[in-house]
């Protein structure tokens, strides 16, 4: 820190707040600590009685908090993101589109472990909307070693920490199974729930087929939707392990590759995820457990955004959902503002 004449302060960073008081009008901070003095600030500072200022004395190998904050921004920011102005070593990033937020967790931990800098994000693998805040970054001290910021850049040399995968348009077919529905003994209440959930995204519902418990009928109905251009097929009913529950077999008989039948999530343990190869396209076929019909949030809510961002769900992806995969069935559901599905 050094004292200099105010007229000579252009380009220097203030080491303290400067207060402005105008009777009956203003009482507050006119210039905050860390503000870099500009030519147009000089007359204002002089009018505040500041003939001299205490400014940061830049030393070789040291960066001002705002300079370093730009580096933090650059190692976080990717396409489809907008940044705030830098202020007191802080910059925030927001989404410029609707999409799925992805975070390189290893990079995030390594940068935060360097000390004197911080990056705080939302949870990954959850949908974000245009304008949603994604991350806040800050340099902790007023000045920081340039070498430390170089290390942060090196850790992220192969790409930013954050990314957003845009949601894509998908055509969806729904296959509802069960003799009780097929023969009109009960009214189907599963289909409307599924349609409401997928309509949160950019989808075209090609239709809903209601078929009997005959596996051949289920298989044929799935394949018919694929022939009509379906890019995702959702099957409801017949997903437990009872002898008369034939949907898993019917999905397998389409020739689809079964990723997993079962997931470490409650509600949603009996979820089936598979992929059918149609020329060069992989079409997800999912068998939805009965809980999706009546529970507020389930495994389907955790997987659907990723499917809509064209992510291929793997067995490892599903295994990781066990941490945080227990819904507490709160009387008032606050999802996604809760811990469900946010273990990793």
UniProtKB/TrEMBL annotation:
<comment type="function">
    <text>Catalyzes the insertion of molybdate into adenylated molybdopterin with the concomitant release of AMP.</text>
</comment>
<comment type="similarity">
    <text>Belongs to the MoeA family.</text>
</comment>
<dbReference type="InterPro" id="IPR038987">
    <property type="entry name" value="MoeA-like"/>
</dbReference>
<protein>
    <recommendedName>
        <fullName>Molybdopterin molybdenumtransferase</fullName>
        <ecNumber>2.10.1.1</ecNumber>
    </recommendedName>
</protein>
<dbReference type="InterPro" id="IPR036425">
    <property type="entry name" value="MoaB/Mog-like_dom_sf"/>
</dbReference>
<dbReference type="Pfam" id="PF00994">
    <property type="entry name" value="MoCF_biosynth"/>
</dbReference>
<dbReference type="InterPro" id="IPR001453">
    <property type="entry name" value="MoaB/Mog_dom"/>
</dbReference>
<keyword id="KW-0808">Transferase</keyword>
<keyword id="KW-0501">Molybdenum cofactor biosynthesis</keyword>
<keyword id="KW-0460">Magnesium</keyword>
<keyword id="KW-0500">Molybdenum</keyword>
<feature type="domain" description="MoaB/Mog">
    <location>
        <begin position="173"/>
        <end position="309"/>
    </location>
</feature>
<comment type="pathway">
    <text>Cofactor biosynthesis; molybdopterin biosynthesis.</text>
</comment>
<keyword id="KW-0479">Metal-binding</keyword>
């Amino acid at each position: 820190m050094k004292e200099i004449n105010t007229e000579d302060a252009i380009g220097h960073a203030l080491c303290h707040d400067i207060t402005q008081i105008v009777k009956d009008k203003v009482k507050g901070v006119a210039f905050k600590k860390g503000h870099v003095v500009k030519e147009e600030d000089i007359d204002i500072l002089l009018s505040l009685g500041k003939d001299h200022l205490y400014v940061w004395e830049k030393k070789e190998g040291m960066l001002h908090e705002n300079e370093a904050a730009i580096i933090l921004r650059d190692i976080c920011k990717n396409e489809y993101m907008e940044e705030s102005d830098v202020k007191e070593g802080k910059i925030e990033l927001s989404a410029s589109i609707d999409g799925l937020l992805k975070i390189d967790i290893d990079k995030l931990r390594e940068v935060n472990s360097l000390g004197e800098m911080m990056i705080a994000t939302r949870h990954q693998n959850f949908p974000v909307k245009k304008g949603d805040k994604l991350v806040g970054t800050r340099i902790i001290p007023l000045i920081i070693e340039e070498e430390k910021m170089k290390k942060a850049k090196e850790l992220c040399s192969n790409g930013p920490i954050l990314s957003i995968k845009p949601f894509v348009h998908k055509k969806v077919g729904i296959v509802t199974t069960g003799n009780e529905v097929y023969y009109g003994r009960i009214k189907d209440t599963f289909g409307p729930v599924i349609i409401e959930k997928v309509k949160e995204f950019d989808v075209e519902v090609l239709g809903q087929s209601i078929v009997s418990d005959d596996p051949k009928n289920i298989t044929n109905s799935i394949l018919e939707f694929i022939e009509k251009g379906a890019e995702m097929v959702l099957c409801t009913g017949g997903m437990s392990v009872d002898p008369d529950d034939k949907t898993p077999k019917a999905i397998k008989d389409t020739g689809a590759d079964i990723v997993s039948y079962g997931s470490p999530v409650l509600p949603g343990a009996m979820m089936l995820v598979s992929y059918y190869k149609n020329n060069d396209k992989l079409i997800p076929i999912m068998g939805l457990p009965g809980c999706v019909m009546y529970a507020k949030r389930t495994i389907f809510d955790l997987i659907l955004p990723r499917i809509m961002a064209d992510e291929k769900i793997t067995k490892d992806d599903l295994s990781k959902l066990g941490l945080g995969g227990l819904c507490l069935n709160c009387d008032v559901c606050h999802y996604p503002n809760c811990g469900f599905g946010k273990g990793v």
